[in-house]
Amino acid sequence: MAHARRKFNEAQPEAPQATRVILKLIARMYRLERHWDEEGVRDPAARATLRTNNFARTLKWLAAIAVAERKKARPQSLVGKACDYLLTYWDPLTAHLCHGETRLDNNLIENAIRPSAIGKKNWLFIGHPDAGQRSAIIYSIVVSCQRHGKDPHAYLRDVLTRLPALTNRFDLDALTPVNWQPQ
Fold first, then answer.
1. Rounded distance, CA 166 to CA 77, Å?
2. For every residue of the chain, which 3-state class applies, written as one string?
């Protein structure tokens, strides 16, 4: 939904009235999501029910306005492209209605993978052919540590010193980022 919102935001100079209404409708959904987060609504079934009950009319208006604006706008205009994007991806954009465990947009995921996406070009030639897989493993460990609130440097230093002393594979569970505690 963030991509759709951004496209309408960019199209504001072309059609300020229509884009203002569309942006207000999208903002209403984000406002409700934020309110439910603050209220502590974590149960996926409850969130899906709230979305179904509260987003149906908003989404109906959003689609109707986008269809009307797409008919009026030139296909290559910013408004035309924004409406076309919204309507082309309507099913994935509205799939969150049935899935209470999902977010309204995927900004959190995109922000999490941005460093690797930016680094891809820089990491094309990092040495040995196996270095790419090794880098991916290390990067996954670092991101997992960050996600669980652990300092990646402290985690790696501690785990790498403890690994040689392990006697069986069952000891490894305590060394995963989610379970790790510094010694």
1. 63
2. CHHHHHHHHHCCCCCHHHHHHHHHHHHHHHHHHHHHHHHCCCCHHHHHHHHHHHHHHHHHHHHHHHHHHHHHCCCCCHHHHHHHHHHHCHHHHHHHHCCCCCCCCCHHHHHHHHHHHHHCCCCCCCCCCCHHHHHHHHHHHHHHHHHCCCCHHHHHHHHHHHHHHCCCHHHHHHHCCCCCCCC
The torsion of the CA quartet 48, 69, 7, 88, rounded to 10 degrees, works out to: 60
User: Model's pTM, two decimal places?
Assistant: 0.67
Q: Which residues does 79 contact at the CB level (< 8 Å), separation at least 6?
A: 8, 11, 14, 15, 18, 19, 69, 73
39-85 residue pLDDT tens? 999 899 999 999 999 999 999 999 999 999 999 999 999 999 999 99
Q: How many CA atoms lie within 13 A of 54 on its CB side?
A: 17
Query: Poorest-confidence range of 18-22, 88-92, 106-110?
Result: 106-110
Instruction: Give the C-alpha separation, 67 to 139, whole Å.
Output: 43
